[in-house]
Amino acid sequence: MIQHKQVDVVCYITEIPWQLPSTAPLYLLRSYIAVPHSRPIASYLYFGRPFTWNLWLAVVATVVYGMIMLYASCGSARSEFGLHLLSSLCHILFISQPQQNICHWQQFAIHFIMILSGFILTNLYLAMLSSMLTLGLFEPQFNTLQDLKHSSYPLMVDDYYIDYLKHAVSLPAEVKDQMLIETKENLFIARTGLNTSYMYFSYEDRLEAILYQQHLLKVPRFRVIPESFMDGLMALPTAPSLPYLSLLNAFLRRIFECGVLNKMKSDAWMDAIDSGIFRLMRNEGTERYDLDFYFFVFVLWAVGLTLAGLCFLMELLRWHINAILFST
């Protein structure tokens, strides 16, 4: 249509392989891949995430240290090893415990160190857990094109770009093998609806318009891989020998330099939402935690009951053995 001068200007970017007259390029327009945001982890795993494994080892070491030091500070006096373990655990968890008989300043120093450690660790744990519950925890994100080789999402494209994508050097072979060819209509519906079953590829200005729908969401549906593998020119194809081409170039350059072009793009996004082409997505109500969130607590409770039952059985066995020895 342009070559036959049926239209003067086409409002579409000029791709570099095209041999068509166009306006003066304003800037290089890059293309990116939009991938679904990583999935949230299971809610019951939150309880173990505030501390790393080495910090958990430090907590265990602190409990063992307090137990040993309290037992050693008793000297020749008779003491129960389990009572010192319970006291050390209560200090680390920063909870109340039975009244302690402090015999000398060494025991006072040990109790003070344990209480201070418990105060710091419990407050750090609660602060980290509350922030994680507010922001959420997710699986690792895809940050580069090479990370996409581990993705299970197919790349939905139309037949126009399929040949170029198959020969793209920076695109992993695993992604090329999972490309899904669809019609332009199905691609438009899936991409504008932000269907999280696929990955999508487009120029950055179109991706900005599509992803504008999710800017009110707490957790976005898609994120853009910040690596380009195909570039185009921000220039509009024109008919040959367009008489007002110089005036059009000056107009485009001025609205770009003055920021009017960005205002026109944002207005176009809002008009697309008002007309129903796009929809502004919002979070659906308040997040509630189901029984899966307390699964880890139930497991700890069951483990505690099991250990308590085993200790009770061992105490009964010890009492029974002592009774037999004394009777003989």
Automatic annotation (TrEMBL):
Transmembrane segments annotated in the record for this chain: 53-73, 108-128, 293-317
Keyword Protein biosynthesis in annotation: no
InterPro entries to which the protein is assigned, alphabetical: Insect_Ionotropic_Sensory_Rcpt (IPR052192)
Subcellular localization(s) per the UniProt record: Cell membrane
Record keywords, A-Z: Cell membrane, Glycoprotein, Membrane, Receptor, Transmembrane, Transmembrane helix
Major subcellular site: membrane
Membrane topology, as annotated: Multi-pass membrane protein
Annotated Gene Ontology cellular component terms: plasma membrane
PANTHER family recorded: IONOTROPIC RECEPTOR 20A-RELATED, IONOTROPIC RECEPTOR 56A-RELATED
Protein name per the record: Uncharacterized protein LOC117571600
Organism listed in the record: Drosophila albomicans (Fruit fly)
Gene designation per UniProt: LOC117571600
